[in-house]
Amino acid sequence: MKKLQYIVLVLLACIQVSCFEVIEEVNLKKDGTGSFKYTVNFSESSSKIKALMMLDEVEGHKVPTEQKIQSEFDKICDLSKTVGGISNVSSSSDFYNFIFEYNCDFNKVENLNGILDSLSHKAESVEYENTEYFSYSKTKKEFVRTGDDVLKKTYDKMSESKKGVFEGARYTGLYRFEEEVVSVDEEKAIVSVNKKAVLHKLELVLLAKNGSAINKHIFLK
Amino acid sequence: MKKILSILLVAVISCFSATAQDLVSKLTKDASLVVCVNGTSLFENISVSEIENSLMFKELSYEMFRGKAMAKPTQFSETGVNVEDKFYFAIENTEDMIYYLFTYKIQDVNSFEKFVKSGLDKEDQFQVVNGLNILTYSADSKLVWNNEYALFISSTYIGEEYSSYNSYYDYYDYDYAYEETAYDDAVYEVEEVAIESKCEEGKCDTGVEMDEAYAKEQKEREEKYKAEQKRKEEERRKKQEKREKEREEKRLKKEKFINEHMMTRITTFFSNSTNNKIEISEFDDNAVASFWYDNMSLMDFTRPYNYGYYGYASRLPWLGIESYLSADYSGNLFLESDKINLVSKVDYDNKMAETLKNIYSTKLNKKFINYMSGDVLGYMSFSFSTEDLLIESENITKEFFENSDEKYAEEIAVYVDLVSVMLDEEAIGELVTGDALFVLNNFATKTVTYKTYEYDENFNSTRVTKTKEQLQPEFTFMIGSENEDLITKLFKLGIKHDLVVPKNSYFIIQDKYNDFPFEMYLAYKDDILFTTNSTDQIANIIAGKAEVKLASKHKKMMRKNVMSSYLNLNLMVEKVLMDGDMAKDLGMLFEIKDDLKEIYGTSKFKKGNVESNMYMTIPDGEKGSAIYLLNMIDKMIEFDSKH
């Protein structure tokens, strides 16, 4: 994971112009099961990435090859397959547009915490750290998304010029439910016309500076 | 009276000679690198106060003394150093030591002493030895001064005797673990077999007897084992103590050796009788900075770290390639009224000069220039004879092995001969002549597509294709080739294997794996193989025209030199900043875009040397390049501090 994080940061540091988006999608059923999709889309910067990948090294950073990126991505997918409650793991890598997708099903939304923990903290381990990134209470009909400061720690260590890679990058959180949404406590998050989905878009730099920017409580009917 | 006058005369002469002395005379022929910063020349173009009041001075002062207890100077005079004289940095390589020397004149010894002694950790860091003031920073670095000049000396021990490589076995007790483990295992096995054999002989048939006998022997064995272990532990401890003592003695000897050698070098430096003085005729008194280095000696830096396959401190085999690198490199930097000018020279020995004369005997094919438009952002041209390069390289490698002590030198020399027979240098020289020209034509905004996601009213997502304007470089690469038949055959093969697609009179490279961020075009015409990513350029090449006539200055530069380069910084920055994203991210360029003009570079082979000249023009109306440079650096610092 550290290698993948390094690879992503090298790519980010190299492309300088920050045109990429991260999309997190959760589809939650009434019984608490559901599916999860995570997309990282560098398509807007693909020509710059391709130009850079023709080089071996940029500003002292070794530029990763497609094989290297794929191998690290595969490792993460394999790692997540070992997390309890996670099934039907699949992924796709599009090196033409530089779009990477990760999909899985979960028995309960809290199982996703195990994946994120393993990705964020334990390079080669799937130890469950009880960090509540996602939680859902069937009795209270409450879905909660909580952020942490893992990204902030990296961001704070970056030089001012390197921090620029986050300027203009976008984060999208999309949460779909079988039941109608009654309310959301995050004012920037909007509810769909059919009231069964919530969309939360924000600049990635805000998330890099403050992990709790993605915090929200969604109350269902 | 006559005697007094004589003494006065000697005193005056010695004072004059001391102050007028150029510190380069203190450096020896052991030097592999000498760098000079000429304060005299620098301060002819800029005043001391102009530098002292600059942001650059404050920044440098902050960075140099950051984290140090020394006082941060706000004026040069506080340091006591004579900044209006020459500063020298040199690296001297001797058999056992590499010295790094930095020397400069002192203007006011009291201020100097106050400055260098401020923030001293310990009083005993300072001592006076033989009339020299010495500040010891560590075992291998000292600052030494008299009333006129100062020397900061640092060193690296590269000898064999006290080298850490040589004492590998002192640091790792490699022999103990294996030997003792093996011994213990052997003893254990023998004793086990002995017990088992006794049982087999019937002595352990009855349960009680067997248990007692076994327990007794087991106990004896354990006691014996413990006693043996204790003895070995004690032996090991003593051995360890002995080794530690030896290591410490060796460390102290090494420290003493380094100190003695440094003191010898210091004494020689401060004496008026430096033998073996280096003479560098290449340094120009009008230059603000100059450098000289002996390339192969400088490369000896890595020698002490080459321990391994080739033995201690051996030089790795270069197979004769060092002939190309073995030369003296020198250069002078001038801050002139209209440009910043770097003039440099590579000085080869006579034999190599003769070799290079053949290789650099060619001139860039005139036809190349016909395809170059006058509005380019930059270019780089080369011209050498591939045929002669191959012939001379074979000769060099062959000669190296013929005169080498390598085990298979004779065989390799014959092998090189065989390769030489098989290679048709003339034919290769025809296929790749050695003429090459890279042109940066433009930065053009192109419409590119990208994928993103859109959401309907119920936030169902759809992947959509969008377009955006993006700045991309347009370039052309030309290589000389006179073998049209072979090039044509190669294109035909390319078509057969779907590597290229013909279009009109050129070819489009099929980017099967999407490796290129743009389309690439190939064409062959007038003995030139063209590669470009610009549709305009390929059209111009096929039409055989250049849109804007190239200035004769550039034509001359390319035709009269073995290498030439040009960059129109002003135009390039202007084009880059037309892109909104770039302008946002490269804000500093926006600040200094009017300060940037053009950079020219040329290299020619002349009288056995390669002479190079690189200069950057400065905007009209500037008071000189020294002030221009200072102002530009200040602008950059100011911008950086605001963002």
Structural key phrases:
heterodimer, A: 221 residues, alpha+beta, 7-stranded mixed β-sheet, 4-stranded antiparallel β-sheet, 7 helices, 13 strands, 32% strand, disordered N terminus, B: 643 residues, 20-stranded antiparallel β-sheet, 22 helices, 43% helix
Any overview of this molecule?
The complex is a heterodimer of chains A (221) and B (643). The longest helix of chain A is centred in the N-terminal third of the chain and has 16 residues, at 66-81. In chain A, strand 1 (21-28) and strand 2 (34-41) form a beta hairpin. Chain A is of the alpha+beta class and 221 residues long. Chain A contains seven helices and 13 strands. In chain A, strands 5-6-2-1-9-12-11 form a seven-stranded mixed beta sheet. Chain A has helices at 2-15, 46-53, 66-81, 111-120, 150-157, 160-163, 204-209; strands at 21-28, 34-41, 57-58, 61-62, 86-94, 99-106, 134-137, 142-145, 170-177, 181-184, 190-191, 197-203, 216-220. The model of chain A is unreliable at 1-5 and 122-128 (pLDDT under 50). The N and C termini of chain A lie far apart (39 Å). Chain B is of the alpha+beta class and 643 residues long. Chain B has a 20-stranded antiparallel beta sheet, with helices on both faces. In chain B, a hairpin with a 3-residue loop joins strand 9 and strand 10 (339-347). In chain B, helix 11 runs antiparallel to helix 13. Chain B is extended and about 90 Å long. The model of chain B is unreliable at 1-19, 168-179 and 307-314 (pLDDT under 50). The interface between A and B is medium-sized, with 34 and 23 residues.
The chain-level structural class of chain A is alpha+beta
**Shape designation of chain A:** globular
What is the count of helical runs of chain A? 7
Strand content of the residues of chain B, in percent? 25-35%
Task: Estimate the mean pLDDT confidence of chain B.
Answer: 82
The largest sheet of chain B, given as strand count, sense and whether it forms a barrel, is:
20 strands, antiparallel
Enumerate how many helices of chain B there are, as a single number. 22
Average pLDDT for all residues of chain A: 82
Taking the alpha carbons of the first and last residues of chain A, their distance comes to 39 Å
Number of strands of chain B: 20
Secondary structure: helix percent of chain B: 40-55%
Instruction: Work out the radius of gyration of chain A.
Output: 18 Å
Structural class of chain B: alpha+beta
Spatial sequence of strands, sheet with the most strands of chain A:
5-6-2-1-9-12-11
Strand content of chain A: 25-35%
